[in-house]
Structures are given as C-alpha cells and as structure tokens.
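User: I've been trying to design a sequence by hand for this structure and keep getting stuck. Would you show me what you'd pick, starting by listing the structure so we're on the same page?

Assistant: Good idea, let's start from the same input. This is the structure you sent:
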C-alpha cells in the first residue's frame, strides 16, 4: 500500500497483476506493451517506480476477455477506451469528456481568437471521428457476430443435408435388398 495526499493507493508489480488477474505474466507484459496507454507505471517524486494502479488488474482481465472473443487489437482498444481512462496518475483524473483549454472565443480583441476557433473546430472534428470510429467498431463487431452465426447456420444445414443424403442412400439400399 502507498499513501498520497491522505488517499490510500495500492500499487502493484507486473507479477502481482498477473497473479491477481490469473493471466500468465508473459501475457500481462504483452498486454502492457500493446495497450501501454492503460498501464502507465506510477512514480514517486524522486522518479522511483512504485508500480501500477490496482485497476490494472481489471484492465488485464478485460483485455483477456475481449481477446477470447477473437476481437482485434483495434476493437479491444475501442472497448477499453469506453470502459477505462487511458492514462492514470496519482492525482485526480479529468473526466473522459476532457476538453483541453483554449483561449476564449468570445472577445473580438483577443489576438488568439482565430487560433481558439480553429482549435475548437479541430477538437470537435477529433471527437466526431472518435465517435464514428467507435460506432464503426461496434458495427463491425455486430456484423462479424452475424457472419459467425450465419456460418454456423450454413454448417448446420450442410450437416443436415449430409445426414439426409446418407439416410436416403441407406433406404434405397434397403429397398433394393428387399426387392431382390
């Protein structure tokens, strides 16, 4: 346990995260490499690493769950983006709807007004693209699931057809043998 500003914080090593999440440490290290924005190690003021936040265990479990669903890294990243904050610090995190501060747009005599307007427009465009990307990811996941279900249905029909063909062949043989 580690305490900062009167708050009790649990910092975990990679090995401890692996044990608590019941995921092999090599897999945890791989997850931390591929999804590093969700595994920022915390440091003391002197720069000494003290570990990873306790929530890292939940992130590892969720990545494992999504990986077991055969989702791509981009799909996993999209799901994580919706469920977890990307970077943790020991201080209070901004909300997921964080918008970087820009100069005020309201004042006509503001020399940075055009820049502020441009930054706001760019930020809104980024938010729109992120929303479209998330929606596209959800749509792709749904389509993928539908294709899997259709594939299973086709496979079942094919198996049924093969069984019926074998039954018909057996009946024809039986009729032929009875006719003789």
């Amino acid at each position: 346990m580690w305490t900062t500003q009167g708050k009790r914080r649990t910092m975990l090593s990679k090995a401890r995260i692996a044990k608590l999440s019941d995921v092999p440490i090599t897999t945890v290290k791989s997850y931390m490499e591929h999804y590093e924005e969700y595994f920022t190690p915390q440091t003391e003021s002197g720069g000494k690493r003290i570990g990873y936040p306790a929530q890292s265990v939940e992130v590892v479990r969720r990545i494992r769950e999504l990986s077991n669903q055969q989702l791509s890294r981009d799909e996993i990243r999209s799901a994580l983006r919706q469920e977890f904050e990307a970077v943790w610090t020991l201080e209070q995190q901004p909300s997921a709807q964080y918008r970087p501060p820009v100069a005020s747009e309201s004042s006509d005599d503001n020399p940075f007004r055009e820049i502020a307007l441009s930054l706001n427009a760019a930020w809104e465009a980024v938010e729109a693209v992120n929303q479209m990307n998330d929606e596209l990811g959800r749509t792709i996941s749904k389509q993928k699931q539908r294709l899997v279900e259709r594939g299973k249905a086709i496979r079942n029909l094919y198996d049924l057809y093969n069984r019926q063909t074998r039954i018909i062949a057996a009946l024809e043989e039986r009729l032929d043998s009875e006719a003789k």
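That's my pick for every position. To get oriented when you compare it with your attempt: Residues 113-179 form the longest helix (67 residues). The radius of gyration is 28 Å.
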